[in-house]
Amino acid sequence: MSPTRFSFEPLYLAVAAAMAIAYARARPAGGWRIASFAAGVFLLAAPLNSPMETIAAKRLLLIHLVQNALIADIAPLLILLGLTPAMKEWIAARGGARVRARWAILAWLVAWYGTHLAGFYDWALRTGWGLNIEHGLLIAGGFLFWWPIVGGRLAPPLALAYLGAAFVASSFLGLAFIFSSHPFYSYYEHVPRLWGFSATRDQNLGGIAMNGEQTFVFLVAIGYYVSLLLKEEE
Amino acid sequence: MFVLVGRMDEWADTHLAVHMAQHVVIGDAAIAVMVLAVRGPLLVFMLPAPVLVRVAKARPFFSLLLRPRVAFALWAASLATWHVPYLYDAALRHQGLHDFEHFCWVIAGLLVWTLLIDPGAHRRLTVGGRIALAAAMFACGQILADVLVFSFHPLYPAYPGRRGQQLAGVVMMVEQLLTLGVLAFALLRPRMRATRLVAA
């Protein structure tokens, strides 16, 4: 199969379309919110319905890990940032208010580490349909994790502690990929290689991409809450 | 002292990670603990009177150095400059330059940790400002650590191993997380409690 061929996970195309329709029907105001929501929906659907999916599922772990970082870290954050206060209230009234930060971070970490366990990852790749479960867990974990932050449920000091704890706790996976000297996933040892990367180098690069993305996202979020803390003091 | 003499100093000649550990201890962790130890009245009695008189005369100069932007700029400049491969290797070849490098770490560390811990209760920075400074230091340290961890080629000719270089990056990451993380937690804790009480 050509690596530039489109592959699809129609489930997430449907989820993204449903989200976009529901959002449009709510007639949100504010350009930046719409832009954020649109970017989030795009980053949720595009990585799973494009040549990126083909390369991720058939060639390179590096691209698979970038895909996971996009759908689990960035897309949910952008989608939640695109919600209007009324939409957030609607979600809070339907269970969102009951989400506790300590459980949200735990669920996110379980999804993050659990889906990257070798047995599960290899199974998901071999079956194909298992990828839907893997991606579903990562997306759900991402929404759960960012909700206490974006939902305005944490004051700046608590938000900083939350983000700091998440940054530290999640970084070990990326570091494990970077420092590994043998491939974790047997599936990628037997697929045709791309761009001349060995399976180990592919995995090391995936760890770098994952760690770099998380460092960027978390430092931006921490910077934002530090600025809020400074404003509070003024 | 412990990291600059004896076995650790010998290992630092051959292992970049150990050399990095030396730097982060003398420029960060040891300084933080020292500044923490001289908080309050002890600070006044720590220096002999003649030295204090001289320090008092140079007060405008120290005040300038202890301006948050100046202190942070000096710290960041020291961090960036001494990790330029050419300078790093030159310092390894010339003991005098190496000593000066360590002196820079100590002075830069002393400046920023004085602001972060505020042993004399001068309140040059608010709690938010101290958190912001810690976050800025962490971000700068992360950039350097990422360069070391993410690089696929050895950057310093004196240390040819890539794995050792990556480990050096992790040493820096972990040390910063421990020192700055503990400080941030200590500063945020009262506010977290207050927030919880208000919420209750």
Provide a short characterization of the protein structure:
With 234 residues, chain A is mostly helical. Chain A is 76% helix and 0% strand. With 200 residues, chain B is mostly helical.
Run of helices and strands of chain B: HHHHHHHHHH
Approximate shape of chain A: globular
User: In which range does the helix fraction of chain B lie?
Assistant: over 70%
Note the beta-strand portion of chain B. under 5%
What is the mean pLDDT of chain A? 90
- The total count of helices of chain B amounts to 10
Kindly name the structural category of chain B. Answer: mainly alpha
Strand segment count of chain B = 0
Whole-Å distance between the termini of chain A?
Answer: 59 Å
What does the main sheet of chain A amount to?
A: none
| Number of distinct helices of chain A | 11
Low-pLDDT windows of residues of chain B:
none
Oligomeric assembly: heterodimer
Description:
The complex is a heterodimer of chains A (234) and B (200). Chain A is mainly α. Chain A is 76% helix and 0% strand. Chain A has 11 helices and no strands. Chain A has helices at residues 10-25, 31-45, 51-58, 61-81, 85-93, 101-114, 118-127, 130-150, 156-179, 186-189, 199-233. In chain A, helix 9 (156-179) runs antiparallel to helix 11. In chain A, 44% of the residues are buried. By secondary structure, chain B is mainly alpha-helical. Chain B is 80% helix and 0% strand. Chain A binds chain B through residues 155, 157-158, 160-161, 164, 168, 175, 178-179, 204, 208, 211-212, 215, 219, 222-223, 226-227, 229-230, 232-233, and chain B through 126-129, 131-132, 135, 138-139, 142, 146, 149-150, 152, 163, 166, 170, 177, 181, 184-185, 188, 191-192, 195-196.
SSE layout and pairing:
The complex is a heterodimer of chains A (234) and B (200).
Chain A lengths: L9 H16 L5 H15 L5 H8 L2 H21 L3 H9 L7 H14 L3 H10 L2 H21 L5 H24 L6 H4 L9 H35 L1
Chain B lengths: L6 H8 L1 H22 L4 H5 L2 H9 L1 H7 L2 H15 L2 H9 L1 H23 L9 H24 L11 H38 L1
Helix pairs in contact in B: 1-2, 2-8, 2-10, 6-8, 6-9, 7-8, 8-9, 9-10
